[in-house]
Design brief:
The protein is α/β, with parallel strands linked by helices. 45% of the residues lie in helices and 14% in strands.
Length: 253
């Protein structure tokens, strides 16, 4: 799954799934722009690990809730690399677990701003550059919560459902100039799951830790989605719970 000469922007890339995705794209031959907004304490590890790949890279800190800074982010990437081929929309609200109650207005606003609206803003800012390459790809990190109602997570589930619909609409609106696809990993063995388990709220917190997939599986699946081999899935949400998809990616249990 070679991505030589392509440039990818990965959002939420300082740690966890986002960092793994950035490193996998770099290992696949892409130049990577790694953006983060929180957890600056993780930056030294990110710098060390991406440098070890030998790939061209740029690390940026941007508040994705400010639209003018999103435009500036895209400009910096194009000025540095000369192009943008892949956008990985891994934007999530910090401060898990999302269990503060369905009627907390502040939580609702923050969830919608981060999980849904910011995805659209960065998509619109990057679209001209993605079209210019002739084969641009947008991959939205999705979730099973888009289709599975869970108590205590009404704002999270609702925002993820909106993001899944955004993937479908954006792909149709792109009219083949680029492709837009979602990736729903399922539950992943990250710190987020540790916090969810501590909360004791809804069935996700009751899952045995062995049920969670390795974070590296998500990264490998995303690299595959960025290649022409996965072009048939444009406009859909691809689930890593699907054994057929795992087989296509080369993942085994």
């Amino acid at each position: 799954m070679e991505l030589k000469n392509e440039v990818a922007l990965v959002l939420g890339a300082v740690k966890g799934i986002g960092k793994g995705i950035g490193l996998a794209l770099a290992a696949g031959g892409a130049g990577v722009a790694l953006n983060y907004s929180d957890w600056p304490e993780s930056l030294p590890d990110l710098k060390r690990d991406v440098a070890a790949t030998g790939a061209p890279h740029l690390i940026l800190r941007t508040n994705l809730l400010e639209t003018e800074k999103i435009q500036d982010l895209v400009r910096k990437i194009v000025d540095h690399f000369g192009r943008l081929d892949i956008l990985v929309n891994n934007i999530e609200r910090g401060g898990w677990p999302v269990v503060h109650g369905p009627y907390d207005q502040q939580q609702w606003d923050l969830e919608l701003e981060t999980t849904l609206r910011a995805k659209q803003w960065i998509f619109e800012a990057a679209l001209p550059q993605l079209k210019a390459t002739g084969d641009g790809v947008v991959i939205n990190l999705s979730s099973g919560a888009a289709n599975s109602p869970l108590e205590g997570w009404s704002h999270y589930c609702s925002s993820k459902a909106g993001a899944a619909m955004l993937t479908q609409c954006a792909d149709r609106e792109a009219q083949g100039d680029i492709r837009v696809v979602g990736l729903s990993p399922g539950t992943v063995a990250t710190e987020m799951q540790v916090q969810i388990r501590k909360s004791g709220i809804n069935p996700v917190s009751q899952l045995d830790p062995t049920a969670h997939i390795p974070a590296e599986w998500v990264a490998r699946a995303l690299v595959w989605l960025a290649t022409p081999e996965a072009a048939e899935f444009a406009g859909t949400d691809v689930s890593l719970r699907d054994e057929a998809i795992r087989a296509r990616v080369g993942l085994t249990t």
